[in-house]
C-alpha cells in the first residue's frame, strides 16, 4: 500500500498510473511551500472534483492539530497540483460556511472515515478548495 513520500515519488514518476487510484478513491499530489523553510512539500491527498474545482480535506486523521500542509497553504495559498499527468498552479482556500456542507458531503461520499475523524476532534476539519490559476 502506497502513502507518504513513496506514494508521491511513484505518482510523479508514473504520471499517476501508480497512486492516483488508491483504496477505492482518487488521490492528487498537493505541493505547498514550507512556511518556515520555504521548501516545496508534496503530499498525497484524497480529492474530488466539484464543478471546475478540486476539493481536499485537512483531516490529519482526526488529530487535534491540523496537517502541516494546511498550515503551509494558510501562509501561502499559491500551490501546485498534480492530477495524473496534469500538473498546474492553483490557489487554495478554505471552504466558507455556506459552501462547506455540500462539499463535505462530496468528500465523505468517497471517504466516509472523514465523519469519524470529525467526531474524534473538537477542531472543525476544513475542506480546502483548489482552483486552477
TrEMBL record:
It comes from the Bacteria. It catalyses: oxidized coenzyme F420-(gamma-L-Glu)(n) + a quinol + H(+) = reduced coenzyme F420-(gamma-L-Glu)(n) + a quinone. GO terms for molecular function: coenzyme F420 binding; oxidoreductase activity. GO terms for cellular component: plasma membrane. It holds the Pfam family F420H2_quin_red. Belongs to the F420H(2)-dependent quinone reductase family. This is Deazaflavin-dependent oxidoreductase, nitroreductase family. It comes from Streptomyces aidingensis.
Amino acid at each position: 500500500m502506497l502513502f507518504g513520500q513513496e506514494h508521491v515519488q511513484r505518482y510523479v514518476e508514473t504520471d499517476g498510473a501508480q497512486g492516483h487510484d488508491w483504496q477505492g478513491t482518487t488521490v492528487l499530489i498537493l505541493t505547498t511551500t514550507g512556511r518556515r523553510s520555504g521548501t516545496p512539500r508534496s503530499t498525497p491527498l484524497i480529492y474530488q472534483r466539484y464543478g471546475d474545482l478540486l476539493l481536499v480535506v485537512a483531516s490529519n486523521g482526526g488529530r487535534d492539530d491540523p496537517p502541516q500542509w494546511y498550515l503551509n497553504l494558510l501562509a501561502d495559498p499559491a500551490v501546485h497540483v498534480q492530477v495524473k499527468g496534469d500538473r498546474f498552479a492553483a490557489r487554495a482556500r478554505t471552504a466558507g460556511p455556506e459552501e462547506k456542507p455540500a462539499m463535505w458531503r462530496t468528500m465523505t461520499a468517497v471517504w466516509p472515515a472523514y465523519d469519524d475523524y470529525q467526531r474524534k476532534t473538537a477542531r472543525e476539519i476544513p475542506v480546502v478548495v483548489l482552483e486552477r490559476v
